[in-house]
Structure formats: structure tokens, C-alpha cells
């Protein structure tokens, strides 16, 4: 099971880095978190159900902490 979780965490971390690097580019203006959906799909495809679940939870945490401004 450890390898499955690794896929989810690695894919989410890579997408978070790419999204952060593209923050100044208006490429992701219309749907800024679409890359995270692709990360979840890739993690689930290569790592299985648990990896997809970890990627979903990891994506939600990364988006909430790093990309949504506090009120």
C-alpha cells in the first residue's frame, strides 16, 4: 500500500509546483485548478484507487492553503 500513496503525493506535489510556477501566466485564468484534476486522474490511473483518494485529499489541502486567499 505504501507505493500507492506515493503516487498520489508525488503527482500532487508536482502539480502544485507547476501551478505555482504558472501563477504569473494567464494560461490557467479560466479554470485555475484544472491541473489538480489531471493530477488526481494520473494518480488514480497509475497508482490505483487509494492513490487517487490521496491525490484528491492532497489537492484539496494544497489548493486551500496555497492558492485560495484568506478572507
3D architecture notes:
- The protein is mostly helical and 71 residues long.
- Helix content is 75%, strand content 0%.
- Helix 2 packs antiparallel against helix 3.
- The longest helix has 20 residues, at 2-21.
- The radius of gyration is 12 Å and the shape is elongated.
* Spans of at least 5 consecutive residues with low confidence: none
Share in helix: over 70%
- Major β-sheet profile: none
**Assembly category:** single chain
Structural class based on helices, strands and sheet pairing = mainly alpha
The number of strands is 0
Shape descriptor: elongated
Q: Terminal Cα separation, in Å?
A: 38 Å
Summed up:
This protein is mostly helical and 71 residues long.
Helices and strands in order, then pairings?
Layout: H1 2-21, H2 34-47, H3 49-67
Helix pairs in contact: 1-2, 1-3, 2-3
Key attributes of the depicted protein:
single chain, 71 residues, mainly alpha, 75% helix, elongated
Amino acid at each position: 500500500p505504501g507505493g500507492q500513496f506515493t503516487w498520489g503525493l508525488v503527482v500532487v506535489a508536482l502539480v502544485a509546483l507547476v501551478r505555482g510556477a504558472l501563477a504569473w501566466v494567464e494560461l490557467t485564468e479560466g479554470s485555475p485548478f484544472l491541473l489538480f484534476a489531471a493530477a488526481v486522474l494520473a494518480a488514480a490511473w497509475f497508482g490505483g484507487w487509494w492513490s487517487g483518494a490521496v491525490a484528491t485529499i492532497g489537492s484539496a489541502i494544497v489548493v486551500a492553503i496555497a492558492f485560495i486567499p484568506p478572507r
